[in-house]
Amino acid sequence: MDYIQTYKGIVAEVPMRYSTQIKPISYVKAHAAELLDRITEEREPIIITQNGEARAVLMDVASYDEMMHETQALLKILAFADKEIEAGDTVPIEEVMAEFGMEAAQA
Predict the structure, then answer these.
(1) Distances from the Cα of 39 to the Cαs of 7, 17, 47, in angstroms?
(2) What is d(CA 57, CA 37) in angstroms, rounded to the nearest whole number?
(3) Sign of the torsion angle spanned by Cα atoms 71, 73, 74, 76
(4) Eight-class DSSP state of 4
(5) pLDDT in tens for each of the 107 residues of the chain?
(6) How many whole angstroms separate alpha carbon 14 and alpha carbon 5?
(7) Residue-wise over 34-47: b if at least 16 C-beta within 10 A, else e?
(8) DSSP 21
(9) What is the pTM for the complete model shown?
């Protein structure tokens, strides 16, 4: 397991995902059906290498759909935020930080 430190020093345990998910193209060719079952069950992508370099990622359709949905949602949020900024509908950072009981960092 790997650990990351988050906001306010909270430490979260994060599994090391991809070290066992890297396979050479020759392995993928020989074990395609097995790998498809594995990615569907585990929902972990397989990184495919060719000549020792990462060349592609194999992932299950459900994970791909989820990733695309999340990406589209984030893009919509960013577009909405851009429109608010253009319209001048903003709040100074000091007010936001005060609302959460924090101090804004001085530049």
Answers:
(1) 32, 13, 11
(2) 15
(3) positive
(4) E
(5) 444 545 555 555 555 456 678 999 999 999 999 999 999 999 999 999 999 999 999 999 999 999 999 999 999 999 999 999 999 999 998 998 998 888 766 65
(6) 10
(7) ebeebbeeeeebbe
(8) S
(9) 0.63
